Amino acid sequence: MTIPAAPSRAALEKACAIAGFDPAEAQAIRIAENEIWRLSDHVVVRIARAGQGSAAAREVRVALWLADNHVPAVRPLRIDQPVDADGQPATFWEELPEHEPGSVLNVATLLKQLHELPIPNDLQFGRLDPFVRVADRIDAATSLSGDDRDWLHRRLADLTARWHRRPEGLPECVVHGDAWVGNVARTADGPVLLDFERVSVGPPEWDLVSTAVKMTTTGAVSAAEYAQFCGVYGTDVTSWEGYELLAGARELRMTTYAAQHAASRPEWRAEAQYRVDCLRGYAASPPWRWKGIT
After folding, report:
1. What range does the domain containing 16 cover?
2. Which of 197, 202, 215, 290 has the CB geometry, 3.0–4.6 Å to 221, for a possible disulfide?
């Protein structure tokens, strides 16, 4: 799976034609595994990869469920969606008011609200898969050596086997699946949750690990910030016996994400290689200073 270095407007224009919006003044917000565009009439369009129609429809269902349960989150437009843009599913959302990136404490606050909700019986959110698409990412990481890719596949197999016999933890709930400050925006009215692609039912520890590894693995979150995070949420996942397993899974996702993108973005190849070297024990002990992939 190769990620294009520059966006194509074809899917955007097709989606807008179907839904009745004008893409003439659309601006790209983020082009990565999904394309995010801003239209001139305060509408945001999210275009997913081909074959992700069911996941896109589930994102809309999740957002409506969050609205019904008064969880602050980005809201989908009340139109028939997703629409099929030549095989790519597109969804349409209300543009947020002026905002800035969320904080670690915002993440804790929103996760606490989300995790306290009862699991709905009728919405079929699916089970959490912490390793979804990781194998494909490894195969697509052509800037890495064959030896590195083989090692990553072995690491994936080991973590997958251990996941199925993980220690017991907190009661399962609806989890965000990719809970970090990049998926929280802070508006004048407070923080809101973004990006529901990975929402599913599973252990809440998976959401908590995303912030914890920023302290233990990458050093992007200070010990003081993490202590505040734990104070707001009420649990320190690093003290759980399954932490090393879930942290390993999150590290692998972060590494293969960078490596996949490095295949088409040469400026990221050094960072991708560094992350692999860290996991393989070729670098100093963590926390490592991994650079953000944008």
Report:
1. 10-95
2. 215
